[in-house]
C-alpha cells in the first residue's frame, strides 16, 4: 500500500470557526466540500482533540473563511499550529462576525460560508460535520489558496493532527533539510525562504541567527535535522 497516492488528492485551505457561549475559536483545515444543492450543504473534517471540534458540537454552527493565495504564512501558523486552549487566537487579528456571531477573516478571505450543523459523523480521529448553509458572501476577487499552492509555492507545512498528514522523506540535494519541531515546517535549502530574504541554496547552518520559522515563529534551536 503506497500512501503517497493520497498526495494526489487536491484540497483547499480554510479557516474554520465556531463559538462556545461568548468565546470564539478557529483553526485551519484543508477539507471543506459541498455535499448537496437543495438544501445547500457542506462537510468539514475536524480532529476530535481540537477545541474547534468542541465548539462546533456545542453551538451547532460553524463558519468557513475561504483563504486567498496571498494569506501570510504567520497567520496560517497562528490558526493552524497553536491551540485556542492556550491563547485567544483572534486577539490581534482583523475579523468580522457573521449574523450568527461566528468570526471570519475580512482581509485574507475571498469569501465565507456560515452553516448550521445537521449531522456529525464519528470518523475515528476526526469528526465529519455536515452543515446546511445559512449564510454566504463573496468578499472580493482573488484566487482561493489550494493545498498544493500552500505547500509548493508558500512552503507551508501540515501538523500531525491533520487528516492529510504524512511523514515526509529526507531530501538533500543542497544540504540537509530541517524540520520545525513545533509546527512541522520543513526548511529545504534548495528552496531557501525567499519571503524572508533567504536565497535558494542557503544551507540551514548558514541562516542568520535571528531567522525564525516562517510559519510559527520558533527560533533556529527548535529545528531538527531530518534523518
Ligand atoms: Fe514552526
Notes on the structure:
The model has no long low-confidence stretch (mean pLDDT 91). The chain is mainly beta and 227 residues long. It has helices at 51-59, 73-80, 147-152; strands at residues 14-20, 23-29, 32-37, 40-47, 61-67, 95-97, 103-105, 109-123, 126-138, 178-180, 186-187, 223-225. It has three helices and twelve strands. The longest helix is centred in the first third of the chain and has 9 residues, at 51-59. A hairpin with a 5-residue loop joins strand 10 and strand 11. The strands form three sheets. Strands 2-1-5-8-9-4-3 form a seven-stranded antiparallel β-sheet. A three-stranded antiparallel β-sheet has the order 11-10-12, with no helix packed on it. Strands 6-7 form a two-stranded antiparallel ribbon.
How would you summarize this macromolecular structure in one to three sentences?
This protein is mostly beta strands and 227 residues long.
Instruction: Tell me the β content.
Output: 25-35%
Tell me which ligands are bound.
Answer: fe (iii) ion
Gross morphology is globular
Count the helices. How many?
Answer: 3
Show unreliable segments: none
Rg of Cα set: 18 Å
Strand adjacency order, main sheet: 2-1-5-8-9-4-3
Please state the average pLDDT score. 91
Major β-sheet profile: 7 strands, antiparallel
Secondary-structure element pattern, one letter each: EEEEHEHEEEEHEEE
SS-based class: mainly beta
End-to-end C-alpha gap: 23 Å
DSSP E strands, number: 12
The residue fraction in helices comes out at 10-25%
Amino acid at each position: 500500500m503506497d500512501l503517497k497516492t493520497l498526495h494526489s488528492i487536491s484540497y483547499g485551505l480554510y479557516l474554520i470557526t465556531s463559538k462556545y457561549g461568548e468565546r470564539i475559536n478557529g483553526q485551519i483545515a484543508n477539507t471543506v466540500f459541498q455535499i448537496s444543492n437543495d438544501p445547500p450543504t457542506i462537510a468539514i473534517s475536524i480532529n476530535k482533540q481540537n477545541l474547534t471540534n468542541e465548539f462546533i458540537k456545542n453551538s451547532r454552527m460553524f463558519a468557513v473563511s475561504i483563504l486567498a493565495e496571498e494569506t501570510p504564512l504567520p497567520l496560517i501558523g497562528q490558526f493552524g499550529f497553536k491551540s485556542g486552549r492556550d491563547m485567544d487566537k483572534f486577539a490581534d487579528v482583523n475579523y468580522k462576525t457573521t449574523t450568527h456571531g461566528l468570526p471570519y477573516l475580512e482581509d485574507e478571505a475571498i469569501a465565507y460560508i456560515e452553516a448550521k450543523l445537521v449531522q456529525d459523523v464519528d470518523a475515528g480521529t476526526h469528526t465529519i460535520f455536515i452543515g446546511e448553509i445559512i449564510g454566504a458572501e463573496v468578499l472580493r476577487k482573488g484566487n482561493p489558496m489550494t493545498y498544493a499552492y500552500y505547500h509548493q509555492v508558500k512552503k507551508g507545512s501540515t501538523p500531525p493532527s491533520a487528516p492529510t498528514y504524512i511523514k515526509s522523506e529526507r531530501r538533500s540535494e543542497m544540504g540537509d533539510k530541517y524540520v520545525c519541531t513545533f509546527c512541522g515546517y520543513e526548511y529545504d535549502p534548495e528552496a531557501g525562504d525567499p519571503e524572508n530574504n533567504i536565497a535558494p541554496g542557503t544551507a540551514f547552518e548558514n541562516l542568520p541567527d535571528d531567522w525564525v520559522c516562517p510559519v510559527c515563529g520558533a527560533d533556529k534551536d527548535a529545528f531538527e535535522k531530518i534523518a
